[in-house]
Amino acid sequence: MRFAPGARRFAIPAFAAAALLAPVAFPLSLLALAAGGFVAWFFRDPERQPSGPGVVSPADGRVSVVRAEGDQFRVGVFMNVTDVHVNRAPFDGTVEGVTHRSGKHLPAFSKESERNERVDVAVETDDGPAEVSLIAGAFARRIHPYVRAGEDLTRAQRIGHIDFGSRADVLLPPAYDREDLLVAEGDRVRAGESIVAATDR
């Protein structure tokens, strides 16, 4: 199993504590071992392949936002603690910029999460400008983008992860309209696999 960067930083101290506690406080050792196992599982990074043509989901989780913004549509996916937290490129394109914005750490499923800390990845696609936003949640304190301005993206490529709870949005290129959307609020999706919009169906 592949793991996202950062897994060792959190898991190794827990496993070390389990080893040190085992001779003197076995129940606490088991607790530390369980914590280390949970962290390793949380940072899991499975292989994914798109299930068809079109824009793939940037995250595992439940669709929490579908709305128009000018001549574009935004699809937001809320990741709870049981979801894979490695984020994927929804489309092919070129990274135009990666911008970090400081902000609050409110629950990522709430409307107020628009004011949360985030990293916006601007992407130029064949269908026009688009954006992927990695948004911190109530417990997330670090956003880790893997890409930089000038890099070419391949659909379903890993582009970052967020530690412990969060949301990922995709602002679709202008070529996509409401009829091209394939998901609604409440739908479950998988990063790099589920198709959220397609112009040829």
Automatic annotation (TrEMBL):
Point out residues bearing the modification Pyruvic acid (Ser). S166
State the InterPro entries in the record: PS_Dcarbxylase, PSD-A
**Record GO biological process:** phospholipid biosynthetic process
| Membrane in keyword set | yes
Q: Does the keyword Iron apply?
A: no
Q: Mind telling me which residues the site (Cleavage (non-hydrolytic)) is annotated on?
A: G165, S166
Q: Which GO terms describe its cellular component?
A: plasma membrane
Task: Write down the Pfam families for this protein, in alphabetical order.
Answer: PS_Dcarbxylase (PF02666)
The top EC class, named as a word, is: lyase
Tree of life domain:
Archaea
Q: Which UniProt keywords apply?
A: Cell membrane, Decarboxylase, Lipid biosynthesis, Lipid metabolism, Lyase, Membrane, Phospholipid biosynthesis, Phospholipid metabolism, Pyruvate, Zymogen
Enzyme Commission identifier(s): 4.1.1.-
What cofactor does this chain's UniProt record say it requires? pyruvate
Name the protein family: Belongs to the phosphatidylserine decarboxylase family. PSD-A subfamily.
Query: Could you identify this protein by its name?
Result: Putative archaetidylserine decarboxylase proenzyme
Q: Which organism is it from?
A: Halobellus clavatus
